[in-house]
Every structure is written in C-alpha cells, then in structure tokens.
Specification:
By secondary structure, the chain is α+β, with helices and mostly antiparallel strands. It is built from seven helices and nine strands. The protein is elongated, with a radius of gyration of 30 Å.
C-alpha cells in the first residue's frame, strides 16, 4: 500500500492533522502487520513537519537508501519540533551514518569469522562469570580433541582442561588462574588426551578480559595443535647410534 501526502499542502490547517494521521495509521499498521509506503517531498514540506513524521516511521527510504530510523518515536508530542532545514539534513545524515556504521560492523564481523575459520587452531572465548562456559568461533575443536562441542564439559578454567594429562593439568590451570589475577596474557604448552586415546601436544595463548570495574569477564584465546612439530623435534634429538639401534 502506498499513500501520497500532497493533500496536506492544500490547506495549512491540514498539516497538523497530517502528523496525527501518520501516527494513527502507523499504530494500525504495526498492530495488523500491514506494509505501507508514505511519499514525502522534502522540498515541499516544512522541516518541522518532516521531522515529526519521521519519528512515526520505524524505517525510511531516502533516495535509494533504506534506513533503520534511529529516531523512531522521538517525541510524545511530535509537533514540538521547531528545527530549521539544516537540522533536518543533519537528521538524515545521522541515519545514513548509522547505516554505514552498521554495514562496516557487519563487514568486520564477516572478516573476523573468515579469519577464525581459516586459522589452524581452536579460536575460543571462555565466559568466566558463566561457569566457564566456552564459546568456539571455528570448527577446529573437534579436529584437535576428537570431541564434538556438545561432548566437552566445563573444567576449572575451560572445557579443554579436563583433557589435559593428569601430571600437567594442575600446573596449567594454576598458570591460567595466575594470569587472570595478574591481568596479563598467558602462553602454555601441554599434552591432552584425544578421544581416540592418542596424545596431542598443543600450545595455548590467551588474554583475560575484564569489566569496567576490573572484574574478570572472559578469556579470548587460541589453541594450536603442535603434535607434528614435537615429533619432528624429538626425531632430531635422536643420536645416530639410536637410529642404528632402531
């Protein structure tokens, strides 16, 4: 449904009614899940009227741009606006800037997800205030541990520490907890038990994150599988005599 608004220009007294009309029609549309498009000529209508009407619309189309109206329902009494043409242009610029910011944010999130997926390691976040709930940003966890995300259970620090070999586990957990208390990054290497029973060597690097009042909020980090590198290092350490014995 489309509605023209030229009728309100014919008589000055109809302008006040136009704003009231827009608010009432918009309320009806929202209640009944209708779709409507209102046409306004920015050069023909008074800026004060346009600003009041803008506040009645959750979405706007300016030129070819569809914008989320951040000024939606701006005032209980919309006719209290008394702003010049410059203010109207500024309102529209704000909406355009809001759209551009949202687009840049979406592009940034897409780039982050692509980076996380392409990293050869587990990219994670641990929510320390939520029982050490662990969020994974890629699919590497199952490759490294053999377990699906649903099979992993929270430990003393995260859902990975229950898999650390027992003789190393307490020391690794203590180092991470120390880093949280001292508000510093950490880097730890350890062995974990894969679901298939094999031992994997991993390197974990993380950074605690804090709330504005200084309380620990989360840990952001990555865990790399360095098993093949460790095997290569151990092979180089073998003496020629050992090779002969083998």
């Amino acid at each position: 449904m489309t509605r023209g608004t030229g009728w309100a220009l014919q008589r000055p007294q109809d302008v006040e009614r136009l704003v009231e009309y827009e608010y009432k029609v918009n309320a009806y549309i929202l209640r009944n899940e209708c779709l409507a498009l209102c046409h306004y000529d920015l050069n023909a209508h008074n800026p004060r009227v346009i600003l009041a009407i803008m506040a009645a619309h959750p979405d706007l189309i300016v030129g070819t741009e569809k914008l989320e109206n951040i000024h939606f329902d701006l005032a209980e009494n919309p006719m209290t606006f008394d702003l010049p043409q410059l203010a109207l242009r500024r309102q529209i610029e704000d909406l355009l800037e809001h759209r551009q910011t949202g687009q840049k944010l979406r592009e940034s999130e897409l780039a982050y997800r692509t980076l996380a997926e392409n990293l050869p390691g587990i990219v994670y976040r641990v929510f320390l205030q939520e029982g050490n709930r662990m969020q994974f940003f890629n699919k590497a966890a199952q490759d490294v541990t053999g377990y699906s995300i649903d099979e992993l259970v929270p430990g003393k620090v995260c859902a990975i520490d229950p898999l650390i070999l027992p003789d190393e586990r307490d020391g690794i957990i203590a180092e991470v907890q120390s880093a949280i208390r001292e508000q510093r990054p950490f880097s730890v290497a350890y062995r974990l038990r894969h679901k298939d029973g094999s031992v994997r060597y991993v390197l974990e690097q993380g950074m605690p994150v804090y709330t504005q009042d200084g309380k620990p909020h989360s840990i952001d980090g990555v865990i790399f599988d360095i098993t093949e590198r460790k095997w290569a290092e151990e092979a180089l350490q073998l003496s020629p005599r050992t090779w002969m014995d083998m």
